[in-house]
Design a protein that fits this description.
SH3 type barrels
Length: 145
Amino acid sequence: MQPFNPWVWRDPAAFAGGYHQTRPAEEPRAGSEHDGPDAPGPGTPVDLVGYRVEATDGRIGSIDQASEDAGTRYLVVDTGPWNLGRKVLLPVGTVDRVDHLERVVHVDRSREQVRESPAFDPDDFGRPEYRQRVADHYAESYRRS
């Protein structure tokens, strides 16, 4: 098993490249056909801004910004009132799955693990020590899980 790299998609198809059905063998609901006009096709970049973000134990907010910059792929999540409106940086390595039809990103972290993460600071993000602190937080939470 390779070591956890927080800045790399575990499932690259989650961001660009198609439809993820998270409900096995379920009949499609009206207005959510797999090949409908709103379903992204293979290789189609998907804008995740506005998607709801769900932790393992409940909602944590919605995506305010997404980056596909080489080497530092991340989501900025506006946590809303449950976390005093603080924005957090979630490296894409924390994404478990994406449901494009429901517009939900599921992360493999608890609300408490996200709450304990370093706050997103756009001024600090360009500094390697800040990115390392974020990476260390999420790597450590894997060790504690």
